[in-house]
Amino acid sequence: METRTVGHMQFVLDLSLPIYEQMVNQIQRMIARGEVELGMKLPSVRDMAVQLKINPSTVVRAYQELEREGLCEKRRGQGTFITSSQAKVEEVKKQLAAEALHSFIENMRSLGITKELAQKWLEEAEWE
Amino acid sequence: METRTVGHMQFVLDLSLPIYEQMVNQIQRMIARGEVELGMKLPSVRDMAVQLKINPSTVVRAYQELEREGLCEKRRGQGTFITSSQAKVEEVKKQLAAEALHSFIENMRSLGITKELAQKWLEEAEWE
Amino acid sequence: METRTVGHMQFVLDLSLPIYEQMVNQIQRMIARGEVELGMKLPSVRDMAVQLKINPSTVVRAYQELEREGLCEKRRGQGTFITSSQAKVEEVKKQLAAEALHSFIENMRSLGITKELAQKWLEEAEWE
Amino acid sequence: METRTVGHMQFVLDLSLPIYEQMVNQIQRMIARGEVELGMKLPSVRDMAVQLKINPSTVVRAYQELEREGLCEKRRGQGTFITSSQAKVEEVKKQLAAEALHSFIENMRSLGITKELAQKWLEEAEWE
DNA sequence: GTGGTCTAGACCACA
DNA sequence: GTGGTCTAGACCACT
């Protein structure tokens, strides 16, 4: 579990989980939270790799995933950029939130917990 | 995605996750939901393997994991049994529920979603 | 972990360890502590099995082990008896104690713990 | 009873105990004695298996056990490393020593041996 | 290259 | 019969 900063972006990496996946998740979420500017250039693969002390091919894979989802785009010779489409960002955000909600419900239901109880727990929970 | 029945237990196995992990999850949840009797004998490693069409050592691994958590116990020459301790079951259930809640909150927060919105979505969601 | 009593003998059995071994150990120690009379008849295999709720062949194996060590002897048609030889009892007791001491020392040494420290811990330890 | 050396580590393996267990014990103790550097990379599963002439999955099991205790950590694609936490090492060392002490005392007490006698024997014993 | 999982099949200890 | 261990070898995901 390590925290590293690249440009304005801060990453928390746990080497026991797929690193490229953690990068994808964290970049998705920085975009969703509006923490990074749309259309912005991402650090180069090389910079990212050096500063996160990881293998460049791991960064490549993360960028590819983000591109596949439409959150990023590669421009030959220039680098990888965050999408400029606010609509795309909203779409991904909605989808991630829906997945989280669905998986929460499935988890609770499979444990035999009622909706009412789950709601109560959520209400009582600290959010920050 | 295949559904198979062993005794009174029904399993849904796919290839997206380790089989032993799916077994552990599903057995945990059957116990948590009170679908299987406490103290009951689980199918023998061999029976389980034959009926799920998987390798015996995969079953062994799942049973070991359940034993490590205290949900099962092995009796020499007799087989593997579900714990008789209702308290242990509650403990594990609470823990799994707490994990689900925590991960839901983390997911939502990291997407910049407010507690109020999350609660609204949960309220509106179908539970069954 | 269950406690069961047969005649004057009390056993603590943990079904996750070899039962015959636990029986041997506990009978050896009852004899060493002078808790059972020398020359006494042990419960029959059948009685022992019924009262401990274990398989008769397990009792047979335990009695065989004790016979092999010379702590017990089988008399055809009469049953199994504890040795009458105080010398034999002392011999086994010495051997078990020597083994315990040796294994303690090996354990501590392999952890890099000095004799002085081990002695200090032993001195500080509760005995009862 | 065979002695094999892998890197700076020397193993003594016999057939009286599970191999993975012997490996765990011996690696724990090398770490406790300070014989291996904290944070060091352990030999890869394959190397270890080849040099100890055992099956890779046996090594995997030993490494998993050490990871579960917190003495080792796996880094994706890089290998298995000994923890860098001196505190963790001390914790495990203390626990192993406590277990050894406890089992020694239990053994002696169950034989009806007094604390004074046990102390005398320990004092008289060769440590090296 | 690393570890993770799974299979098939053997042999053993225990009850 | 039960579970426990080990082997040999395959395939996969990750770096």
Mean pLDDT of chain A equals: 95
**Largest interface by Cβ-Cβ < 8 Å:** A-B, 29 and 29 residues
Question: Shape of chain A, please?
Answer: globular
CATH superfamily of the largest domain in chain A: Winged helix-like DNA-binding domain superfamily/Winged helix DNA-binding domain
User: How many individual domains of chain A?
Assistant: 2
Widest sheet: strand ordering of chain A: 1-2
CATH topological fold name of the largest domain in chain A: Arc Repressor Mutant, subunit A
Low confidence ranges of chain A: none
Gyration radius over CA of chain A: 17 Å
User: What is the helical fraction of chain A, as a range of percent?
Assistant: 55-70%
User: What's the number of helices of chain A?
Assistant: 5
Content of β-strand of chain A: 5-15%
What structural class do helix, strand and pairing data of chain A support? alpha+beta
Keywords (chains A, B, C, D): DNA-binding, Transcription, Transcription regulation
Organism (chains A, B, C, D): Collibacillus ludicampi
Protein name (chains A, B, C, D): GntR family transcriptional regulator
InterPro entries (chains A, B, C, D): Tscrpt_reg_HTH_GntR, WH-like_DNA-bd_sf, WH_DNA-bd_sf
